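Two entries, shown back to back:
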Amino acid sequence: MPPKASTSKRPVSTRAAKTTKKAEDVEDLTRQLASKLAISKPREKQRVTPDSPPQDDPNASMRTVNIASKKLSALMETGWTATKDSGVNKQRQEAATCARNIRKNLGTLRKAVASSPIDLERAALSAVGKLLALQLVRPHHPPLYTDPLTQTQFEHALDILLDIYHPLLSCYAHDSDTPHATIPPTPTARGVLSRKHLFHLPPPTSPLDEVTMKLTSTFLLYSTITLSAMFSSHVPELEEASAYLAEHGNFSVWIQKCSDLPYEYRDSLCTRAYSALSKSLETDVSPSPSLTIKFYSLRCLLPTSSSVIKPDTFWDQARKFSMVHMKAARDNEAEAVKKILSESSRLITEVQGRADKDGFLTGSSFLKFCDYLSKIASQVFALIPTYILLH
């Protein structure tokens, strides 16, 4: 008698479950968009080719965005990422094509949509999130700009973010007198400086709803991740870009403005911004902008809830950044110390805005950090007469 077939179910692969959930976690907003948006003017029926929708046909553009978005989600479900492959391959080509189609057709929809512009920008930001999940944002040496396929390294995500910027400003009330909302760059402008305004959004002048909070805070996170991926390959621009970041970058300000969002969501935004910035630079870059960027990354952690970062770990990292800077700038110790003291003063001031500031400003690692600042300051003060004579 043949044995009975087993009726027990095979266990689901944990890896497959995680990959599927990762794809599901990225909202496919285009589905909602298709049912909610109102098209201002109907278009005449035009001939459709497989590669592109009819020109300025919003309905066809909506379908193209939806198809491209689903293809990116399908790539995510396979577990493929750009870091697993080098060079141009089928998956990279498909992702590049999807990104270009999404950007082009969202542009058509922005011109045609009569209502719900915020849903368009949510769909655009969802596409950026998928490009990031596929790890299509990473530095490449030398920068690859000539081939539209290798451009996917970071340019496609940045181009979509640039398209979002000005429409996003129309989604909430803010002071319109902002010099940082610059005109988007020309297609040939591919450096950090031409995109640095993505580090800044004018603060709101009235309360925000939850949808707008998520949209603006996530926009700043994605801008931070994509721009920081460009730092090492655009070293000549770092001095000016880091100065702008320190002066006008307002990621932590926005996270505080979005206090009604779940604390787990806000904590995730902060830690991801810190990770992207603190790991963005190689050891051979100019020490001054490197210190500015790394201390800014620490400031991105300040809006987190009390259980996320330990004070000792926080100040140990600040001391480590400072020590690396002093070692790299040994030829000009006086300027290096001034830079460290300036960045440290600002950091300590902003720490005082935390609810648990007493725990941050009394621990052993904070005292070690202060002792280190005193030590390097006293060494430089002793060198000042010689420094003046030499100059």
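entry 2 starts here
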Amino acid sequence: MQITKHIRSLIFVFTVLAAVNLLFLGLARQAQADLERAYELRGDFVAFEHDFRMTSVQLSQSIHAFVVTGSDTQRMAFHTSIERLSQIYEDFVYLEPTANEMAIFRHALGFQDNLRALDALAIAAQRAGDVDRAQEILYGSQYNLYGISFLATLNQLNAAIFARTNSTIEHASSSSSLFNFFSGVSAILLAVVVIIGSYFVLRKAHITVDETRAAQELNDVILKHSPLVMNIWSKDLKLLQTSQQAVDIFKLSSQQEYLDRFSELSPEKQPCGSNSTKKGLDYIKLAFEKGGVTFEWIHQSLDGTPIPMEIKLMRFKRGEQELVAAYSTDLRTTKEAARTEEELRTELALNEEIQAALEAASIAVNFYTSEFELVNCNTESVHLFGYSDKEAFVDAFSGRMSMFSLAMQPCGKTASEMIDDLKIKVQNQGRVKFNWTFVNLAGGEIPAEVSSKRA
């Protein structure tokens, strides 16, 4: 009667611990989902920002070309870019911006509206035959000021969204680790309850019928509802029992199928190069000798998908018989979170190394997109163009290579025409070398030999 009371108490404790374990597992999965959503949002914003910048560049190029040539094709290209910008404005809402981010975005749109107003004046002057007035508007200080202000505001929006996603990533990563830790602790407590329950169930050989029924109830609850894969091994190294969780994780039809096909649920060799069957049995022998051992193991599903696990082996007695209980925890969520964090650290370190190499160069080095949009440079390049601040230079130059170039290059072609030709050559040939005349902030000409290579 006393044993039956203990068993019922253990069933209650086990049920509570199982509920707590499932709660922490659910919280860990939610944190992982938040982490993935933050990375997805960051990727969507990078795509949005690139589209926004490139469409603005295309719009600027088309209006400049129209003023120079008066081509209806360029005018149509200008209006097409305007329509695309309207669609981009609507796309921003789907990025789930905060009130502050939406305010910054509206500020950027204000500068765009100012630029379009100047574009309209330039178009009117061109149609009236006053090309000089049109060019004066497009190359004037007011136009440049609005353009630089727009790019600076867009960078401010970039910083705000990246700060928000970084905060979410940091919080979700730490929460995932914390919830996984508490899940592991509750799993260990469950294992302790199992051992104690097994002790009470099997301590006496003369258990009454009622006590036997209670013990079987505890055993069924444990094997059916345990959040861990639980295996029982005999001293002659035979797998006797398993839990329902083994069926769920390995996507099998029954516990019997798991017992029958256990050898297929590990690869032929473990990552260390050891044969899985031999190494697994060696661990079972070690647990019988020393009482317990913990290690990591690579299992696999029947289709060959790897399933990393942490396995804890514990020796216990059932009557006079010594057995080993194996408790296996699925590590896929933990491994994925660790890998994501490590990839982020590696990316940051690589960016720092690239920037250090740039600064060590004695020549001006610029990095452009395939559309000749400046994305990075070294200090030498900043000083060459008469700037003292790198960020201001990148903002001013980005998407405006023609504005920092001699309008009519020595070869007799306009800078805009040559840039379009060079884009095609870089894409087709992979590498081109050409002579180019830039213009610095003071208006001085900078003859240069430029090597361009597709990344």
